[in-house]
C-alpha cells in the first residue's frame, strides 16, 4: 500500500447487506465512490451507494464484467460466498482486495481457516472432523462424541447449523446442513460442543503501516447459530484477554493485508478457544454504532485506506439486539418505533431489506446504560416494542 493516498477512492463492495450499508455510509462521509454489489436488487448498501450491480458473486465471468466496467481501486468483500479465485486474479492485476485475496479465500470456507489456525498455527480449537456423505457424518460424529455441532463449511449466520444431541438426530442434522449450505460445497464440519461461559468477538484492526490494534471485547448471545444480542465491554480477565489478543494477532498476521477482522472466541472458566473469524466488520460489532468514538465500519474504512486511527474510545456500557422478521413478505413495515425511541440513549437501524422471511434480520436496536445489564435490557425492550407488519394490512 502506497504511503500517500488521495481521496476519493473507488470502492467495490461485494455483498450489500446491513454491514455493507454502514460501511458505505462511512466511506461516503469521506467522499469516496462506492459500487454496491449483491445478488438481489435494492439491497441495503445499494440504497446509499453511488452505483449498484446485481450479479452472482460466485460467477467469475460476472465478476470480471463489473470490474471491467467500473475499474475500482479497492474490492471490499462483505460476505463469504464469492468466487475467491477470481479475487486472486484481480489482485494480481493491481486492484487492492481487502484484506487480501488469499485471506478471503482462506475464510470463505470453515475448513480452510480451521486448517490454517489449527494445523498450521497450532491454535486451540474445538475438536473437529469433516463429512461429505451421511455415512461419513455418522462416523465422524461418533468420533467427536455428543453433543456436537454440525455446520456446512460454507454458510454464515448459523444457516444449516445444528447441535446434535444423540446419534438418532444425525440424519436430521445432515438434511438441515445440506439445505443450508451456501455456494457450491456440500462438505460439512462436525465440532465438539464447547460449554462456554461467554463468547466474544475481538474486533482486530490490521493496518498497512501501523501495528495491529483491538477494540474492547464484545460479548454476544446467539440462538440457533445466529446473533441475538451483543454488548461492550464484555468482562474477560486480563490474562484471557491477552491470550485472545495474541491469537487474533497470530491469525490476522498469517492472513495479511489490512482491515478489521471479527475474531470469535469461546471463553471457558480458564481458557480461550478460537472459533472463527470474519475478515470484515462483524454482525455482533454493530454495537459499536453506539459504543465507540469510531464504529467498526469507520475503523474498517480507515484501515483499508491507510488513514490513521489515533484513538479508539469506548463510550460506556452499550448493547445491541436484533429485530427479526416473522413472515415472508415483500412489503413489510415497522410499527412501535415511536415507543421504542422514547427511551433516552436508545437508537435504531432498520436495514431497508426489500423482502422478509421468517428469522431474517431486518434491523437492530442500540442502547446505552449505567451497566451492561441495563443496556441489554433497554435494547431488548426496544425490540419488543417494534412489530413487523405488512404494509397492505396496515394501510387497510
Ligand atoms: N463448537 C461449538 N460449541 C458450542 N457452540 C458453538 C460451536 N460452534 C458454534 N457454536 C454456536 O453457534 C454460533 C455460530 O457459530 P459460527 O460462528 O461457527 O457460525 P456462523 O454461521 O459463521 O455465524 P456468523 O456468520 O454469524 O459468525 C456460535 O457463535 C456459538 O454460539
Ligand atoms: N453473520 C454474517 C452477517 O451478519 N452478514 C450480514 O448479513 C447480510 C446478509 O443478510 P441476509 O441473509 O438477510 O441477506 C450480509 O450482506 C452482511 O451484511
Ligand atoms: Mg460466527
UniProtKB/TrEMBL annotation:
Positions with a binding annotation for N(1)-(5-phospho-beta-D-ribosyl)glycinamide: 18-19, 78, 283, 353, 360-361
GO molecular function: transferase activity
Binding site for Mg(2+): 264, 276
EC number annotated for this UniProt entry: 6.3.1.21
Transmembrane intervals: none
Residues annotated to bind ATP: 110, 151, 156-161, 191-194, 199
Keywords annotated in UniProt: ATP-binding, Ligase, Magnesium, Metal-binding, Nucleotide-binding, Purine biosynthesis, Transferase
Catalytic activity: N(1)-(5-phospho-beta-D-ribosyl)glycinamide + formate + ATP = N(2)-formyl-N(1)-(5-phospho-beta-D-ribosyl)glycinamide + ADP + phosphate + H(+)
Biological pathway: Purine metabolism; IMP biosynthesis via de novo pathway; N(2)-formyl-N(1)-(5-phospho-D-ribosyl)glycinamide from N(1)-(5-phospho-D-ribosyl)glycinamide (formate route): step 1/1
Domain ATP-grasp per the UniProt entry, residue ranges: 115-305
Class of this enzyme: ligase
Pfam families: ATP-grasp, PurT_C, RS_preATP-grasp-like
NCBIfam families: PRK09288.1, purT
Functional description taken from the UniProt entry: Involved in the de novo purine biosynthesis. Catalyzes the transfer of formate to 5-phospho-ribosyl-glycinamide (GAR), producing 5-phospho-ribosyl-N-formylglycinamide (FGAR). Formate is provided by PurU via hydrolysis of 10-formyl-tetrahydrofolate.
Family that this chain belongs to: Belongs to the PurK/PurT family.
Record text on subunit structure and interactions: Homodimer.
Name under which the protein is recorded: Formate-dependent phosphoribosylglycinamide formyltransferase
Source lineage: Bacteria, Bacillati, Cyanobacteriota, Cyanophyceae, Coleofasciculales
Amino acid at each position: 500500500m502506497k504511503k500517500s493516498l488521495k481521496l476519493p477512492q473507488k470502492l467495490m463492495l461485494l455483498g450489500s447487506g446491513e454491514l455493507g450499508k454502514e460501511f458505505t455510509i462511512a466511506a461516503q462521509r469521506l467522499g469516496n465512490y462506492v459500487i454496491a454489489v449483491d445478488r438481489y436488487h435494492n439491497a441495503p448498501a445499494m440504497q446509499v451507494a453511488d452505483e449498484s450491480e446485481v450479479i452472482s458473486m460466485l460467477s467469475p465471468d460476472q465478476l470480471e464484467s463489473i470490474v471491467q466496467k467500473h475499474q475500482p481501486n479497492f474490492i471490499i468483500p462483505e460476505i463469504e460466498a464469492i468466487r475467491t479465485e477470481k479475487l486472486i486474479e484481480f489482485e494480481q492485476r493491481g486492484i487492492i482486495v481487502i484484506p487480501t485475496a488469499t485471506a478471503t479465500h482462506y475464510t470463505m470456507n470453515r475448513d480452510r481457516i480451521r486448517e490454517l489456525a489449527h494445523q498450521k498455527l497450532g491454535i486451540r480449537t474445538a475438536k473437529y472432523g469433516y463429512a461429505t456423505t451421511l455415512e461419513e457424518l455418522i462416523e465422524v460424529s461418533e468420533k467427536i462424541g455428543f453433543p456436537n455441532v454440525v455446520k456446512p463449511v460454507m454458510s454464515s449466520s448459523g444457516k444449516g447449523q445444528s447441535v446434535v444431541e444423540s446419534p438418532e438426530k444425525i440424519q436430521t442434522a445432515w438434511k438441515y446442513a445440506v439445505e443450508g449450505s451456501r455456494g457450491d460445497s456440500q462438505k460439512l464440519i462436525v465440532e465438539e460442543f464447547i460449554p462456554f461461559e461467554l463468547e466474544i468477538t475481538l474486533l482486530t484492526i490490521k493496518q498497512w503501516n501501523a501495528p495491529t490494534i483491538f477494540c474492547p471485547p464484545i460479548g454476544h448471545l446467539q440462538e440457533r447459530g445466529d446473533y441475538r444480542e451483543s454488548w461492550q465491554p464484555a468482562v474477560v480477565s486480563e490474562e484471557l484477554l491477552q491470550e485472545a489478543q495474541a491469537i487474533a494477532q497470530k491469525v490476522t498476521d498469517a492472513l495479511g493485508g489490512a482491515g478489521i477482522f471479527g475474531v470469535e472466541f469461546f471463553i471457558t472458566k480458564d481458557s480461550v478457544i478460537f472459533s472463527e473469524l470474519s475478515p470484515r466488520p462483524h454482525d455482533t460489532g454493530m454495537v459499536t454504532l453506539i459504543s465507540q468514538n469510531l464504529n467498526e465500519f469507520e475503523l474498517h474504512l480507515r484501515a483499508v485506506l491507510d488513514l490513521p486511527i489515533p484513538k479508539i474510545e469506548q463510550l460506556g456500557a452499550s448493547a445491541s439486539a436484533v429485530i427479526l422478521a416473522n413472515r415472508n413478505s415483500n412489503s413489510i413495515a415497522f410499527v412501535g418505533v415511536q415507543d421504542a425511541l422514547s427511551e433516552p440513549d436508545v437508537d435504531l437501524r432498520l436495514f431497508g431489506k426489500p423482502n422478509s422471511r421468517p428469522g431474517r434480520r431486518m434491523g437492530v436496536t442500540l442502547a446505552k446504560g449505567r451497566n451492561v445489564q441495563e443496556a441489554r435490557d433497554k435494547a431488548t425492550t426496544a425490540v419488543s416494542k417494534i412489530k413487523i407488519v405488512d404494509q397492505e394490512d396496515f394501510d387497510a
